[in-house]
Amino acid sequence: MAHSTISIFFFFSLCFFSFYLNAQTTPSKQLQAFIFPIKKDGKTNQYYTNIQFGSNSTKLNVVIDLGGNFLWFNSVDYFNAASSYRPILCGSRKCQIADTDGCILCISDLPVPGCTNNTCSDFALNPFTGTLGFSGLGEDALHVRSARGAHVQYTVDDFPFQYSDPVLRTGLVGLAAGAVGIGRTGISLQAQLASAFKIREKFALCVPPAGGDGNLIVGETAYSIPFEEISKSSLFTTPLVKNPVSISGNEVIGNLTHEYFINVKSIKVGSKTVLSLNKTLLSINKKDGSGGTSIRTVRPYTTLHKSIYKALIKAFVRAAASKNIKRVKSVAPLGACFVLKTVTSSKTGPQVPTIDLVMNKKKGVFWRFYGSNSMVRVSKDVTCLAFVEGGINVSGPTTSIEVGGYQMENHLLEFDVASSKLGFSSSLLLHNTTCSKFGSS
Ligand SMILES: *[C@@H]1O[C@H](CO)[C@@H](O)[C@H](O)[C@H]1NC(C)=O
Ligand SMILES: *[C@@H]1O[C@H](CO)[C@@H](O)[C@H](O)[C@H]1NC(C)=O
Ligand SMILES: *[C@@H]1O[C@H](CO)[C@@H](O)[C@H](O)[C@H]1NC(C)=O
Ligand SMILES: *[C@@H]1O[C@H](CO)[C@@H](O)[C@H](O)[C@H]1NC(C)=O
Ligand SMILES: *[C@@H]1O[C@H](CO)[C@@H](O)[C@H](O)[C@H]1NC(C)=O
Ligand SMILES: *[C@@H]1O[C@H](CO)[C@@H](O)[C@H](O)[C@H]1NC(C)=O
User: Fold this and answer.
1) How far from 371 is each of 344, 356, 360, 375, 402, CA to CA, in Å?
2) What spacing in Å lies between the alpha carbon of 115 and ligand 2's midpoint?
3) Which ligand is nearest to the Cα of residue 306, counting in written order?
4) Where is the Peptidase A1 domain (predicted)?
């Protein structure tokens, strides 16, 4: 009896010992997270990151597309060194996960990225121009940096992407080779990292104003100070809603089921609810997918359905007038502009009436925009409300509110895709910090 107790004890301590060794060499998998630096281009208002891809670790700038399906790019540097490129074959498991639109037969003397036979294929979308490119998907090595400690590099050998036609790059910030999707698909960046490293499907996004730095952190990690505290105790939480309707036919402008929607119930300006909003527009129409509120990094400013836009402008102009802020001629596409010197400034930017997107009035869940997120300076003397009318050149169903990049800047946003929840902070300026300080401990 004593003998077997000892051997059991010995067995357990061996297990413990090997687990301990393991933990020393690879950081605890449950806490693994990966970091992607974000910059904003001031001219195009696009947010992009840098990735290292393929056997030669080609460095590529790619635009961040929050509702995008997958990684796509075109790059001669990668092409010339693409020795480890492999097509994703039709009928393969990866093809099923990708949930794609077809199978392509492309025959060339030598199979090359973008032209291989019997290949699982889908549409890549340029989210700025609406240009679509249908071609085969492949996989290659994505090199990622741990968000923890010494930023050790890891490699995902079979990361799916599309090597796209060069025409798809038109409209992207000059130095970008393509875009990386972090939408609700099986082959988006966070979905693939979650499956490769067995971590929770979750990411935190902190986008900077032009000239600043921000980060995308995929996975779970301990953030740096003061973000750990902000994340733990001062985030508002709201459900991420799924739009049940994708777009089909010729009016494809992306796939609405892959975008992140939130349930905005009302809008406040100053502390007053904007009364004349058409409530039907605020919810998603289950028949055609129109309406509702999405969050999109590829919109420079929040776009609003015409009637919501008009109501917001009216309420804002009135509230601004009561603060003696003087209105001047509008500067298209911005519909409400003011004399800069009639606006005082504060820690949270120009002191103008706040704008709240209210998700849950009872529980006090609302996303508040102060001047730093609501006003944009267009000239030496003029500052304008940074919201625009949406749906102007869109033929398909339109989303009523698309929260754009300018409004997201200097807010910590945690997309917990696994449990379909969005956590968002108030303006980081209120916490005496900015996205440039967002990192991990
Ligand atoms: C791979 O990278 C190395 C080092 O950067 C470079 O010298 C080499 O030319 C690259 N190979 C190709 C095929 O581009
Ligand atoms: C392309 O793939 C199809 C389906 O697997 C196969 O029938 C055909 O022979 C292939 N063609 C070439 C040229 O490899
Ligand atoms: C949109 O995505 C959903 C879920 O991935 C898919 O079932 C649907 O076919 C897609 N629609 C289009 C038009 O690609
Ligand atoms: C509200 O919007 C819906 C959807 O666009 C429209 O059908 C309806 O007529 C609008 N209601 C009013 C009162 O304008
Ligand atoms: C809509 O399209 C027209 C013609 O292509 C273009 O001139 C106009 O600037 C576009 N408007 C917006 C708001 O994108
Ligand atoms: C931010 O700084 C101000 C002034 O230094 C201080 O009073 C305030 O408590 C700080 N707020 C936070 C959240 O740290």
Assistant:
1) 10, 12, 23, 5, 19
2) 13
3) 4
4) 47-425
